[in-house]
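Dock 2-amino-4-mercapto-butyric acid; give full complex structure.
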Amino acid sequence: MTTSIIGFPRIGKNRELKFATEKYFKHDLSQESLEKTAKEIRIENWNLQKQAEIEYPVSNDFSFYDQVLDTSRFLNAIPKRFQDLNLNALETYFAMARGLQTEKIDVKALPMKKWFNTNYHYIVPELSSETQIKASTDQILESILEARKSGIETRPTLVGPYTFLKLATYTENARPEDFIASFQTAYKLLLNELDKNNVTWLQIDEPALVLEQNDADLELFKTLYQEILKEKKTTKVLLQTYFGDVRDAYLTLLALDFDGIGLDFVEGRESLHLIERYGFPENKILFAGLVNGKNIWKNNYQKTLDIISQWPKNIHFVLSTSCSLQHVPVTITSETQLSQDILNHFAFATEKLQELHELDAIVFHGNTAFLVENERYFTGNRIKKDDALAQKIDHLTALDFERQPSFSKRLEIQKEALKLPLLPTTTIGSFPQTKEIRVARLAHKKNELSDDAYEQFLKEKITQWIKFQEEIGIDVLVHGEFERNDMVEYFGQQLSGYVFTQKAWVQSYGTRCVKPPIVWGDIRRPNPMTVKWSKFAQEQTQKVMKGMLTGPVTILNWSFPREDISLKESTLQLALAIQEEVLDLERAGIRIIQIDEAALREKLPLRKSDWNKEYLDWAIPAFRLVHAKVKAETQIHTHMCYSEFTDIIPAIDAMDADVISFEASRSDLSILDSLKENHFKTLVGPGVYDIHSPRIPSVEEIETQIERILEKVPVDHVWINPDCGLKTRASKETKESLAHLSEAAKTYRKKYL
Ligand SMILES: CN1c2c(nc(N)[nH]c2=O)NC[C@@H]1CNc1ccc(C(=O)N[C@@H](CCC(=O)N[C@@H](CCC(=O)N[C@@H](CCC(=O)O)C(=O)O)C(=O)O)C(=O)O)cc1
Ligand SMILES: N[C@@H](CCS)C(=O)O
Ligand SMILES: [Zn+2]
């Protein structure tokens, strides 16, 4: 074996899985047909890997929703309230992912969180004293046998026990230690079954090892694996890590009886150093993550060879990707609108298989032709540098990052200017992106709907939803973001320096995908991007209309960034572009402007010691730069979702926004204590219901959430809003939910009069 990957996108080349699953959710497709689509995708993926001469394509990397949820199912870590529904296995699985509300059933989804430093979201496992861990190996074995029927021998993968225990939430006094023995038994049983089925390799993913590890963490890891590995007979075990280096755990890993260890040489800055310093045992195989699994730029073969050349000579290694390829689109061959000159610089998942094949030829067979060909893309100037922009950034001073007057003075001025009631209600920006809207946008894109007709259509939607917000008494209105395909791609398409794709979809969570735009060069804003729509919307109402922008950190984090300049540099370019937009909105009469930084935490280094110098020290100022020049009476909102925020609360306060809305309801408002402890100054809307589930919250349920918020946050600091935008929801459930939200806020408001 000389080449390998960690996982392949499972959405299908044309998002076949998304469309089939969503039809199944609507009862328009049978479970059998859904499974047929899934099987076709798996076979296609294995064939692609086989064509690239990967000896062991990966199996069990396919998932109907999420790989962590699959591991919960493997371990039978299914909370009792879901087991009690007495649904079939797939229905139970989807109930855990999405919640379920019928005439007789009403159960909330499990929380969803960001998967390490990616824009992928996993379903948080829940372990309680009632959880009966018991391995269910059927799904893993079935996929191995399915591949065998096509003549393909695969390497199954699953999330490891250590990462699972680290990501889980614990209820009813359960603790990680309570599950050590049962997890050992489960993974041993799996090893045993694989052995009986003559499987050569098992890949166990332990990305949690790239986080900071203390002695107790390492002890837990060791205890788990010393026992599991006792079950090893002929099936070999690859311990796979990614998203960073394992500097704290390296020696522990070497001392255990793994046959292969997967290290990340792209994001793992210390990986090379670890190997140089401590060596790598001759009796193990190094699965070397050299091809970037997260970005779409071609691999620079010479740089890869330079890394390899620094390893001790006796290392037995396999060329691999830095992480699963689920984080990049399937193939560049679907791109019909980008010039070949541009596409030549990219490698999506399928092309990365080819890169591994070529690297194999260079490294193991001395084929230099591929090396020469590859060098062409890394010599000369790919783009013309914007010197004026570079100078503008160089000349920024501390004053450019400091809004005046101070927060407390602004608060008073804004109270007077906006005259909002206590516990003001608002939403996060988007309203349902219905089939009707998507079809109209597609027709416009294909020139089947004229500019005028499309604009008229969008204006009608905006007007209808303004009327609805007024009817139910929302205080600060939004226009609904109907003109946007996505909160990042929309901006990428209007900024110079970006290129964008047609079909380069990447899974974000469940059936939802994103098409990250690509930063190709220096970024400028040629024209206003949102002003026309916000101005139109404000003209339709006497109430305050909130302008809606995406912030620079989030735009960059949800784009494929350049690798030839720093993230900081691209973010500052974006910050200047968004600053121009903010000031144009203000000039157009928009009095509240929300600048979403949903992804602020995403690129926070996974190791806490790197947080400030490598990220927060420039990410927070970049946000401040965007709004520093607005008038005191203009209220700046921001919004964040799907991350763990409790540990960066002071940094969030330092963004110096006037109001922030958080995703907090699905994670049970756990953020509130941290707000209180840190004397959080920014006004806050912690999100009173979860928008990622189709269930409609009752008025009483929302009142309970408000009650809980008011126990921890002063009433005049609280905003009432859903926890994220409503684009993924249907219109009917959105309207009912918002009516309940408004009613609950009014009830509470009265209590304080
Ligand atoms: C807030 N979130 C976002 C994240 N990242 C982003 N880049 N954007 C986000 O909003 N990360 C964290 C969270 C959670 N994530 C998501 C991610 C994605 C969605 C979502 O609803 N995605 C849509 C696709 C959105 C889009 O780009 N739509 C386009 C294209 C629509 C389309 O598929 N058209 C079809 C034809 C029409 C049809 O038949 O329906 C086609 O082109 O073939 C658009 O609207 O124009 C998804 O469907 O997955 C939500 C939350
Ligand atoms: N304004 C965006 C934020 C999502 S994180 C929306 O409402 O969809
Ligand atoms: Zn959000």
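Observed: The two ends are 73 Å apart (CA to CA).
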